[in-house]
């Protein structure tokens, strides 16, 4: 690493694995030198310990967060569409899954001077379309100055990158698109509201005073998403597959006008999800049966007039909610009681929107009423099915996002396997070179033994011959 001594002479320092601060699941490695622990995660990149650290940082934690985000987006988007449907008992459907949008964790670092107030510190996901698979670290500086680091990509946002507001009324989108989010601070009381990446974060200090310089807070909005998702429906009858709005077109319509997607804009007007009040009594309390009649104005534009047909024999003009922001309703300049028809646009009624498509002929009609008999109606089920291909997670569908996750893990595993094989080959070659220099070759040693034996036998024959010659000479000289 950076030169931390592990073994010096007869003294050995201790290598420790400790729970992370403040995330106890994020185990860190320390070396204890003279009683002082030094974190060495970043210095250990090789060997078995280095491999485990790299796996944790590059695979485990990112995958954990990505699965959490996928579960949260899946539950949130499916629940929103399901709540637009009607079940077999004629009630507005409830949530299909539990939604862990407010199950994120906020943790103060152990080195903080000022801790967190548990009741006043929380994180809630309010826009899953902006949600990132990341943890966030908020660090405080002098006079309440702060910075936010998105851990997944290391991007840091300083206080000036946020749009500051003087008062807090709830989750806000920044007016300036160049800003990372919105922030409200009351430094004296230690309260801060922060919006970033679809998150609504509230931080409150434990003592009700300003956070101290170098205090840090870890925010984990998606970590436990996959762990906490659960089924909410208890029976098949609770599946909201039908649309709450019945649409009809007379058989004598000569044009091709038709109704597409129905979206509930104010579920409260349709009745509380899962209550025992029938749809017939609650659906159109503030939204009476409506009929659209199509015609042409003097400019040649196709226009429509809306009628309240609660009494079919005495229709009266339908009154649209004047507060509804509905750009599809453009008033006919030749007659303010009519609206110009825009093909494919969603017309906003008082508690729902309907997409109108096709080309109506003069006198064609469309009617909207409460779907009091939801049997044999799968319109909301089709819209639920359409979600599987919708680009809901950073431009990708549920399946595409999950496939990319599996592909990334599979690629990393394949690369690790190739690196392992390459390292084993290098190891074998190195051992061969070492053994060739300093090792013992049994075949070579056996050949040498035979050679030494032959040399010994030859030497013994020379000695024996010399002895015989000497004995012969002595006997000849008497």
Question: What are its keywords?
Answer:
27% helix; 478 residues; 25% strand; five-stranded antiparallel β-sheet; alpha+beta; 6 helices
Notes on the protein architecture:
The chain is 27% helix and 25% strand. With 478 residues, the chain is of the alpha+beta class. Helix 1 packs antiparallel against helix 5 (398-438).
Brief rundown of the structure:
With 478 residues, the chain is α+β, with helices and mostly antiparallel strands. It has helices at 47-82, 225-228, 279-282, 379-386, 398-438, 442-476; strands at residues 7-8, 11-12, 14-18, 28-33, 36-39, 105-108, 122-125, 136-140, 146-150, 155-158, 162-164, 181-186, 191-196, 199-204, 216-220, 245-248, 258-264, 290-296, 302-308, 316-317, 330-332, 335-340, 346-348, 352-357, 365-370.
Q: What is the radius of gyration? A: 39 Å
Distance between the termini: 89 Å
Largest sheet: 7 strands, antiparallel
Total count of strands:
25
Beta-strand percentage? 15-25%
Overall form: elongated
| Poorly predicted tracts of residues | 269-283
Count of separate DSSP helical elements: 6
Mean pLDDT figure: 86
Helix content: 25-40%
Oligomer: single chain
SSE arrangement:
Blueprint: E1 7-8, E2 11-12, E3 14-18, E4 28-33, E5 36-39, H1 47-82, E6 105-108, E7 122-125, E8 136-140, E9 146-150, E10 155-158, E11 162-164, E12 181-186, E13 191-196, E14 199-204, E15 216-220, H2 225-228, E16 245-248, E17 258-264, H3 279-282, E18 290-296, E19 302-308, E20 316-317, E21 330-332, E22 335-340, E23 346-348, E24 352-357, E25 365-370, H4 379-386, H5 398-438, H6 442-476
Parallel strand pairs: 11-12
Antiparallel strand pairs: 1-2, 3-4, 4-5, 6-15, 7-14, 8-9, 8-15, 9-10, 12-13, 13-14, 16-25, 17-24, 18-19, 18-25, 19-20, 19-22, 21-22, 23-24
Helix pairs in contact: 1-5
């Amino acid at each position: 690493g950076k030169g931390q001594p592990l073994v010096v002479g007869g003294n050995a320092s201790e290598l420790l694995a400790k729970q992370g601060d403040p995330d106890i699941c994020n185990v860190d490695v320390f070396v204890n030198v003279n009683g002082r622990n030094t974190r060495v995660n970043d210095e250990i990149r090789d060997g078995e310990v280095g491999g485990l650290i790299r796996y944790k940082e590059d695979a485990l934690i990112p995958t954990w967060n990505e699965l959490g985000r996928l579960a949260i987006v899946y539950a949130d988007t499916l629940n929103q569409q399901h709540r637009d449907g009607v079940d077999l008992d004629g009630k507005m459907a409830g949530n299909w899954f539990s939604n862990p949008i407010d199950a994120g964790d906020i943790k103060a670092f152990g080195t903080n001077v000022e801790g967190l107030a548990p009741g006043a510190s929380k994180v809630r996901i309010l826009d899953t379309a902006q949600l990132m698979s990341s943890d966030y670290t908020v660090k405080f500086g002098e006079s309440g100055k702060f910075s936010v680091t998105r851990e997944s990509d290391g991007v840091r946002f300083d206080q000036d990158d946020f749009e500051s507001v003087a008062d807090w009324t709830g989750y806000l989108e920044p007016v300036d698109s160049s800003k990372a989010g919105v922030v409200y601070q009351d430094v004296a009381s230690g309260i801060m509201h922060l919006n970033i990446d679809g998150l609504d974060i509230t931080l409150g200090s434990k003592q009700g005073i300003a956070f101290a310089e170098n205090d840090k807070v870890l925010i984990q909005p998606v970590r436990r998403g996959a762990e906490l998702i659960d089924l909410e429906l208890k029976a098949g009858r609770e599946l909201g597959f039908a649309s709450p709005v019945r649409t009809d077109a007379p058989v004598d319509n000569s044009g091709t006008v038709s109704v597409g997607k129905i979206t509930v804009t104010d579920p409260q007007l349709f009745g509380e999800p899962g209550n025992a009040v029938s749809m017939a009594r609650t659906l159109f309390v503030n939204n009476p049966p409506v009929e659209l009649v199509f015609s042409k104005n003097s400019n040649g534009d196709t226009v429509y007039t809306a009628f309240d047909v609660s009494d079919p024999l005495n229709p009266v003009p339908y009154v649209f909610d004047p507060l509804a922001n509905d750009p599809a309703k453009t008033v006919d300049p030749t007659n303010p009681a009519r609206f110009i028809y825009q093909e494919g646009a969603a017309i906003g009624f008082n508690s729902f929107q309907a997409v109108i498509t096709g080309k109506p002929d003069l006198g064609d009609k469309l009617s909207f009423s409460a779907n009091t008999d939801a049997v044999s109606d799968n319109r909301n089920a089709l819209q639920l099915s359409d979600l599987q291909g919708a680009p809901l997670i950073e431009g990708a569908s549920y399946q595409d996002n999950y496939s990319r996750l599996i592909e990334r893990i599979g690629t990393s595993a394949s690369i690790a396997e190739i690196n392992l094989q390459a390292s084993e080959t290098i190891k074998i070659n190195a051992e061969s070179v070492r053994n060739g220099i300093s090792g013992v070759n049994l075949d070579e040693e056996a050949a040498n033994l035979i050679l030494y034996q032959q040399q010994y036998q030859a030497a013994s024959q020379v000695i024996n011959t010399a002895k015989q010659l000497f004995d012969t000479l002595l006997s000849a000289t008497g």
